[in-house]
Structure formats: structure tokens, C-alpha cells
Amino acid sequence: MEAFATLARSYERRLLVLALHYCRDRHDAEDLSQEVWLKAFRALKSFRGESSFYTWLRQITINTFLNDRRASGLKSAQVVELDAWETTRRDAANSNYFPLMRPPRGLEETVEQGFLVSRVMDALGDLTPQQRLIFLLKHQEGMTYEEISESLGCSTGATKKALFRAVLKLRQCLGVGMEAADYEPHPVRKSC
Amino acid sequence: MHDCRQTQDNLVDLMFDELDFATRARVRAEVEACAGCSAQYRSFTATLAACDEASAALTPRESYWPQYHDALGRRLALAADVAIENVTTAKAPTESVSFWKRLLTTSIRVPAPLAATAMLIFVASSILALTLLARPAPEPVVLAAPPASTQELNAPQIKLIEVPVVQEKIITQIVYVPRRRSTTTGGGGAAGGDNPRRQLPRENLAGVNSSKASSPAALPRANLSGFKPAGEMNLRIIKGSSTREQ
User: Fold this and answer.
1) Is B75–A170 a contact, with Cβ atoms under 8 angstroms apart?
2) Domain ranges of chain A
3) What is the CATH number of domain A1-74?
4) Which of A83, A162, B21, B118 is the most exposed, having the fewest neighbouring CB atoms within 10 Å of its CB?
5) What is the H or E stretch that residue B164 is in?
6) Are B72 and A8 spatial neighbours (Cβ–Cβ below 8 Å)?
7) Which residue of B has its CA nearest to A34?
8) 3-state secondary structure of B93
9) Any residues with CB less than 8 A from the CB of B102 and at least 6 apart, and which?
10) Which residues in chain B have their CB less than 8 angstroms from residue A8's CB?
11) Structure confidence by residue, pLDDT tens digits, B77-112
């Protein structure tokens, strides 16, 4: 178990940040990432070394995320998450209580950083869980379309389309660089 | 020919480096040449940059990790204890129980098309069997023995053979029988009137020959003219008869 804990420390930061982007709530992210480690610990015998340990661990992570999404499918998860995020954001703005954020250099940077994080988290919250997971796997993990489609069990075309929509929606929600883009060929529906 | 729509469909692929060398070079050239596509591309990269910046800000500080390790260590220790308990309790049952349990819980990996085909065959055969069972059975035909004599009746063995009739068929056939032509009397009477003497023996002969077939009314009356009785009489005594007759 000690050896496994040592191995876990190599990837725990990466895994926690991924879970944090996916859940957008600190407590949920901690819980989900630890659940991934528990599943990996239980399934350690099934690891045959055909892929790298992190690839194997990432597949467990994806499955856990998908199962978690299914388990909390019809409840108003988004509202709960957003409320929780508002709380953590308020905490971060008021004091240094929020332990995940790096210590800012000054008050102005604190406010700016908190504002940016909240905007990005809100924008991620506007994506569907599938779009969010595909965007995170592509952007954070650097997986190819084929790897993502194989991991999620969908086609490459569907993965590409979901990523394209996710980026469009993020851009729309963040409003970043829109002053430079006057031309909008594919208007994004508000509902999607 | 530059097509903004087609180019902008490739912008995300260009941003995530998912294009091959030739396509990447072509799309890059088109983006640089078109102001609208260039603005789109810049907005996409700016979006990703904002996400990166937020992600960097969310990276936990070092003081956070000890409590995370403690929590994870506790959960791992708990899971390890549960696993050890499971291993211990799994070895306890007798071998026979574990054998049956293994037999009943064994699963085999089957390809999905094969499993679907097997399931279809099973369902089709079940439906066919149910259909055959629901159909009424044909009534058996009992062939009884013909009425027998007393000895046969006394015989103990009467064999009944049941033959199932799959389908009954009635065949109707019309049989045509040639009608018997009635005998005409006109021609024969005219010939007999000319020479009755010659006609007699022929008619007698005809009367003898056809005595069984024709009715007595049809026979001509015998003509005794010219009959000469015999002058001698031969009497034959048959020996061996009774004494009175001799």
C-alpha cells in the first residue's frame, strides 16, 4: 500500500485538477479523485502493463467521471455545483481560505484571478458533461480524437463535433477575443 | 478558392494540432490571408489561453497536499482492510460450495453479434415450439376388424391400429355404364313366317340356348306337325338300383 501511495503522488495533482475542472466543486473533486485512486488500488491486479500506468489510470478516471455523471444524472447537479462554486469563489475573494488557489501577489491580482476562474468555471458549467469531458481530455490531457473516441465509446466524428461546439460555447461564454472576431459563421444556440 | 466556412471548420483542428502537414499548411495560409478567419482563430486561441490561466490558478498550493494524502491514505487503508477480509472469508467455505458457486457464477465472454444471433435462434425456436403445441392434434382413425365368426370372436387378440389422418380427401368419380340394347322382334318374325319348318330347329335351339336368359313369354310355341314316334322301344335296366325298380 505504501508503494501504491508513492505511485499515486506522481499523478495526484494532474488528476485533481482534471476532477476540479469536471466537477467545478472542490469537495466533489476531492471525493471523485480519491474514488479514482481507490478503484485503481482495487483493480491493480488487472493492470497487465500493456499501456502506461497513467493511461490505465486515465481510463479508470474517465469511467468514474461518466458513472458519476450517470449517477447524478437527473438531479439538479448544475445548480448545486454552481452554488458550491459561488461559495468557494466568495471564500477565495474574501480571504485565503480556498486552499487550491495559488497565493496571489496582491489584492488586484486576487480579484482578477478569482474573476477569471469563476468565468471559466461558469463557462465549463454551460457545457454538457460529455462536451466538458471531451474538452478537458483534449485540452488538459492532450489526447487525440481517436483516443478520446475509444475511451468514451463514441465515433471520432462525434468527438470532433462535440469539441468544436465546446470551444464555440466557451468562447461565447467567456467573450474572450470577440472584438477581434467580427465574422460569426456558425451561431451557437443558447440551449446547447 | 477560399471558403471561410470550410476554413473555420478546421480552426479547432488546427489549434489542437490534429491536421496533417499539408492541410495544416494550407489552412494556416488561408487564415493568414483572410481577416475574418484570422479573427476567429485568434478568438479561439484566446479562449484556450483563458482556460489555461484559470487552470494554472487552480493548481493546489503545497500546503494543501498533506491533508489530501491523509484522507487518501485512510481510504486506501480501509479498502485494504476490506480486501483482506474478503480474501479471508472467501477461503473459508468448503470446496464443494465454492465449486458450485464458481460454476453458477462463471461468465463467458461472447461477441455481441454471436450472442444476438443465438438469442434470435432461441426466441424463434421457442415461438415455433409454442405454435406446434397450440395446434390441435389430428383425430386418430380406428380401423376395427370386420365382424368375425364365433371362433374369431372367442379369439383373445383384437388388434386395433390407429392411423393418424393428416388430411382427408374425398374423390368423386362418375362411372358411365353402356346401356343394354333392347331386342327387336320385327326382323326375326318376318324371316320365320316364310319357312316355319326350317325355322323350328333354329328356334328350338335358340330357345334352349337362351332359356336361361330370356323370359318364357318370349319363347315360340313348339310345332308338333311332322312328329313321328319311334317303332321300337329300348328299355335299359340299370343294375345296382333298388329291388323294386328291377
Assistant:
1) no
2) 1-74
3) 1.10.1740.10
4) B21
5) strand B161-164
6) yes
7) B72
8) coil
9) none
10) 72
11) 887 777 677 666 665 555 666 778 888 888 888 889
